[in-house]
Write a structure and sequence with these properties.
Blueprint lengths: L9 H14 L2 H17 L4 E5 L2 E6 L2 E8 L3 E5 L3 H6 L8 E3 L2 E5 L6 H19 L4
Antiparallel strand pairs: 1-2, 2-3, 3-4, 4-6, 5-6
Length: 133
């Protein structure tokens, strides 16, 4: 892994992202690929990147969402309860705390909820930048 004192190049980020995905157990890799597809569907201009040792997506040159696989769940970041309330999103029983929403690996991903969350994050990101999807 490159030194943490120097920023990774885009080529290094792409390699780290591939390594991250390849290191996942097959079930987690499938869920992560599905999650990535849902993010891309909701924000088609999003570009893959790697940050804080997890996959992320960039819009207009800035990261707007991160996602990761864990032992028993996958997560989206930063997803706060305030974001959910501001956009009228019901987490439907999924855990939302400390800036994350968690989806258990053993259950199908809630595609509609994820697309709505990603659009809300993109909207929030656009307002901060003065641009929109």
């Amino acid at each position: 892994m490159p030194s943490s004192s120097k920023p990774l190049t885009e080529k290094q980020k792409a390699a780290e992202l591939r390594r991250y995905m390849a290191a996942l157990p097959p079930a987690s890799r499938r869920v992560m690929k599905s999650l990535r597809s849902l993010i891309r569907a909701a924000a088609p201009r999003a570009v893959d990147t790697y940050s804080y040792r997890i996959p992320a997506m960039r819009l207009d040159g800035r990261i707007f969402i991160w996602y990761a696989a864990w032992k028993e769940h996958c997560s989206l970041y930063p997803i706060s309860a305030a974001l959910m309330r501001a956009h009228g999103l019901d987490p439907g029983g999924y855990e939302v705390k400390k800036g994350t929403i968690r989806f258990p690996l053993g259950k199908p991903l809630p595609a509609t909820l994820i697309r709505r969350i990603v659009k809300a994050r993109a909207d929030e990101h656009g307002k901060a930048e003065g641009t929109y999807l």
